[in-house]
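<purpose> Linking amino acid order to shape
<body> The protein record starts here
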Amino acid sequence: MSMIEAKAFLIDLDGVLYVDNCPIEGAVEAVEMLEEKGYRYRFVSNTTSKSRRCLAEFLDEMGFSISERRIFTPGIAAAERIRSERDNRCFLLTRPDLQEEFDQAGIPIADDEAEYVVVGDAEDGFTFERLNRAFRLVMAGARIMALEKDRYWMAADGLSLSAGPFVAALEYATGTVAEVVGKPSRGFFEMALAEMGASAQETAMIGDDIITDVGGAQNAEMTGILVKTGKYREDLADRSTVIPDMIIESISQLREHI
């Protein structure tokens, strides 16, 4: 049996620990095992529907004991990235909960004359009016900051569009290229590693997206582990040019490889 030579882990949330509101069998125990064995770990999610505080509360309701400080999201990365800018007004094309991260960073939110259009998973907020306002702001000089460019995610009733298609629409309409701050951005992974105090070479990333999680991690010089839960699809994995360092059925099998 192959073993994972890692001292630290970055772990995706949606699709790895849970799907919709249901924890994946054995996931709670896997997290407890990492704590018991003294591994360093953080949860790196492209989820942009909730603030870090709300994510911690959501996980608690499912039986996970995960503190806010162990969760790293594109909202946190974007707020840190924008905070130091002199002209840093943002138009948020996201769900309302995410504004909390920007408010805490002291970043002004504006519906006009913004320097950044920040795009996340707005779900029902992707209306023509909001997309058109974002389009006009970019045409007037604002920069697009994509919290993530995932194509889809696994909801309780099946695959659902994520933010990526809407970011692509704005890029196409404006002729500009978005700055991506979430996975698979190397900078995102490096910020999470720094927060955890671990090097890329001693860290393994566990995710259900072969491109965003595994490919992004490998490009950042980490080990990439793919789980067959969440959005995993065998046909896509077989066609992908990304070759995971390891494939496991679910995070519950992690105990057998460390």
About this structure: The first strand starts at residue 8 and ends at 11. The chain has nine helices and 14 strands. The two ends are 10 Å apart (CA to CA). The mean pLDDT is 93.
